[in-house]
């Protein structure tokens, strides 16, 4: 049997009397592009925050590569290969694009308090060159060569979203969490971002969990889809199964659930 790369087991998250997640469970296998959809306030970002370590669920368990990471800090999760982007941009606005992306590789640096001096003499320059080459590969992949020296805060919204993706990719994650990567983009920018995400999955071998409101994109590129509503999982399956699910259409699209229609209407 294939061991799931990520296994989320019945996690619940509460903020005082507000229950953000209620016993949500799912698994993602290595190489999957797994999407999470649902109406605003359904708990999607809260779920990603639990996986990345920003939130700690009160109940349940999160396992990555078979290891329990439920109580690990975000830095530890980044070090073992979990990267993410944010719904609201989290770039260093006054830093260059290149420096923002380099931040994504900080956990890969080998020097520490005890070996720093000797390391700087013997290997720092060589390692710096290796990191720069990796970053340049990411820059080339995402077609942002022309802004590599620009200040991040001066870029258009679409380009800033691409830079934030570049920083997450520079971490060389095994699993990357994308929180609405296409929000606020025009059609052309969305098409480009969708292509980058598919290529990261298929060519770079990254497992992806994506939150996205554009149903067309989700259904076109996802291997499997999970639906949340009011903090609960209401469906999970192939894109075509999700599209055909009447409970999903009611929760997400506001359509009437045929299972709840009046008997008279059904017999008419």
TrEMBL record:
Coiled coil: none annotated. InterPro entries: AAA+_ATPase (IPR003593), ABC_AA/LPS_Transport (IPR051120), ABC_transporter-like_ATP-bd (IPR003439), BCA_ABC_TP_C (IPR032823), P-loop_NTPase (IPR027417). The keyword Transport applies. It holds the Pfam family ABC_tran. The keyword ATP-binding applies. GO terms for molecular function: ATP binding; ATP hydrolysis activity. Residues 6-255 form the ABC transporter domain. Keywords: ATP-binding, Nucleotide-binding, Transport. This is Amino acid/amide ABC transporter ATP-binding protein 1 (HAAT family). It comes from Aquabacter spiritensis.
